[in-house]
Design goal:
Radius of gyration: 16 Å
Bound molecules: S-adenosylmethionine
InterPro entries: SET_dom, SET_dom_sf
Structural class: mainly beta
Protein name: SET domain-containing protein
Helix content: under 10%
Strand order of the largest sheet: 2-6-8-7
Largest sheet: 4 strands, mixed
Distance between the termini: 37 Å
Shape: globular
Oligomer: single chain
Strand content: 25-35%
Order of helices and strands: EEHEEEEEEEEEEEH
CATH architecture: Beta Complex
CATH superfamily: SET domain
Number of domains: 1
């Protein structure tokens, strides 16, 4: 079992690997897990990030945690995979990302890191913090063939100490009607 990163919350299980919930239909599960069953590098761990509690009073997520660069991260570089519970049931979670939708649109698979996950669950949205995100979510297949949601730096390097910030998308904020957070931006 992997050691928990520093500043990990007590009420969340640290799991650098994806876990699979019973709500995923078998044919979708085999598509997500992939056909190559071999152990691959656990990309749910990264030495280039650290979890910090935000103390800056002007930060919109003050007193929460955020994910920061522990060293310089070059542009277009894989930072970490987002791990959690992969599921196909309905969830109301602020830690749930879409991983896969089938063509008919009747199966939506998400990765929910509300109860288990890795450092990636602490990535905040850029709104109210910076002009634009410095990282993006992107699906990829791991060496073992597993479909994962990964986090990459965008077109500029991320400086050591900078917060890693993505766009959750306008829809994420609209769905939550969060006062004071602008959703005018195009992403
Ligand atoms: C996936 S979590 C991010 C990690 C979270 N800060 C924590 O400590 O667990 C998403 C939550 O972070 C907060 N958050 C993220 N980005 C934010 C932003 N730009 N402004 C305000 N709150 C933000 C909101 O409370 C949101 O529901």
């Amino acid at each position: 079992m992997s050691a928990k990163p520093s500043n990990w919350p007590l009420n969340v299980v640290f799991s650098p690997q994806q876990c699979y919930h019973s709500s995923i239909p078998a044919h979708v599960l085999s598509h997500i897990r992939g056909s190559v069953h071999k152990n691959s590098k656990a990309d749910g761990r990264s030495s280039s990030v650290s979890i910090r509690t935000i103390t800056d009073p002007s930060h919109p997520a003050v007193r929460q945690r955020g994910l920061f660069a522990a060293k310089k991260i070059p542009q277009h570089t894989h930072i970490i995979d987002y791990s959690g519970e992969v599921h196909a049931d309905e969830r109301e979670s602020d830690y749930d990302l879409t991983l896969y939708r089938n063509r008919d649109g009747d199966v939506n698979v998400g990765v929910d890191a509300s109860k288990m996950g890795n450092e990636a669950r602490f990535i905040n949205d850029y709104r109210g913090i910076r002009d634009k995100p410095n990282a993006v979510f992107q699906e990829r297949r791991s060496d073992s063939g597993e479909l994962r949601m990964s986090v990459w730096s965008s077109s500029l390097p991320i400086k050591k100490g900078d917060e890693i910030l993505v766009s959750y998308g306008k829809g994420w904020w609209r769905a939550r009607s969060v006062d004071g957070v602008s959703v005018k931006e195009s992403t």
